[in-house]
Amino acid sequence: MVARTARHRSLRARRSARQAANSRAMAWLARAGLAARGVMYVLIGIIAVQIAVTGSRQRADRTGAVHLVAHTPLGSVLLWLLVIGFAGMTLWRLSEALWGTNDAGGRKPAKRLANLARAVFYGVVTFGILRYALGIGQPSSSDAQSQDLTAAALRHPGGEVIVAIAGIVIVGAGLYVMYRAVKLRFLKHLRMGGASVRTRTVVKRLGQVGGIARGLVFGTVGVFLIVAAAEANPGQAKGIDSALRALARTPLGPWLLVVIALGLMTFGVYSWCESRWRAV
Fold first, then answer.
1. pLDDT of the residue at 138
2. Burial 182-192 (b: 16+ CB within 10 A, else e)
3. Phi-psi region of 14 (alpha: psi -120 to 50; beta: other; left: phi over 0)
4. SS (H, E, C) the chain
5. For residue 278, what are the β-bridge partners?
6. What is the C-alpha separation between 260 and 173, in angstroms, rounded?
7. Which among 177, 86, 193 is positioned nearest to 131, based on CA atoms?
8. Where is pLDDT greater, at 75 or 205?
9. More confident residue, 35 or 252
10. Model confidence at 11: pLDDT above 50
């Protein structure tokens, strides 16, 4: 009898949790998170353009974007909106990791694991912005995070292999993001039945251009990790800021950085479109 009661309570708790994951509140949090992600990418793109044109020392990553927000007239309010948005993104991805999604293959272990990794990532982002909003610390730069994690891995036996694998995975992820963009795979998540043909075309192009730029940046970060593993030197590991600056030092010069920066801004705008039309 006691065991049966406990089982019923467990089932009710799981049912309640699943209902919460599919609730309007969770949908709102997901959309807030997508909007916050869009803000972050637009600001990183703006900083990257400044680096290419003026040689700005501002960091083209989350840290630089947060500093940019904080120095606006409504900086404090906007920081808290970013905290809410990224917290929403974290909870949404965590719910997808626990319960899966309704699209094809959405309940497969690999898909759930990927969403768990996203939840952890956005949780770290949320914590960093929260500390900054409370005035008790600054979010770590992407370069510092990458180098610290690489150094920690290299201190262990076989660390070079671990770092190399991580780099290969990130390069693969970047290539996959670009592939999804080129093949328009992202469209399956959008519900734009009520939108005009022109609007759907614009959103499609935004997703393509933005996805390609985002994937290229991911891939560049992964290449630096592979180099760090080959040289057993954590200083070679780079975050988004250094990866973008490296693009400006290619034979194409700062113009390549401008193109990628505009692509990242485009992805930010696409994220805003996702916050409106994505099925969540």
1. 76
2. eeeebeeebeb
3. alpha
4. CHHHHHHHHHHHHHHHHHHHHCCHHHHHHHHHHHHHHHHHHHHHHHHHHHHHHHCCCCCCCHHHHHHHHHCCCCHHHHHHHHHHHHHHHHHHHHHHHHHCCCCCCCCCHHHHHHHHHHHHHHHHHHHHHHHHHHCCCCCCCHHHHHHHHHHHHHCCCCHHHHHHHHHHHHHHHHHHHHHHHHCCHHHHHECCCCCCHHHHHHHHHHHHHHHHHHHHHHHHHHHHHHHHHHHCCHHHCCCHHHHHHHHHCCCCCHHHHHHHHHHHHHHHHHHHHHHHHECC
5. 190
6. 17
7. 86
8. 205
9. 35
10. no
Domain ranges across the chain: 2-277
**Structure tokens that stand for 270 in this block:** 């696409």
Average pLDDT, the chain: 87
pLDDT category of residue 5 using cuts at 50, 70 and 90? low
The b-or-e profile of 257-271 (16+ CB within 10 A means b, else e) is bbebbbbbbbbbbbb
Residue 215 CA neighbour count, 13 Å, CB half = 17
Global pTM reads 0.87
- Whether the Cβ atoms of residue 40 and residue 268 lie closer than 8 Å to each other: yes
Per-residue pLDDT at 6 exceeds 50: no
> What is the model's pLDDT at position 166?
93
- Cα distances from 14 to residues 52, 98, 236, 258, in angstroms, run 51, 11, 46, 49
Q: Retrieve residue 143's tokens.
A: 């370069």
98-124 residue pLDDT tens: 888 766 666 788 888 989 999 999 999
Q: Which two tokens stand for residue 155?
A: 């201190």
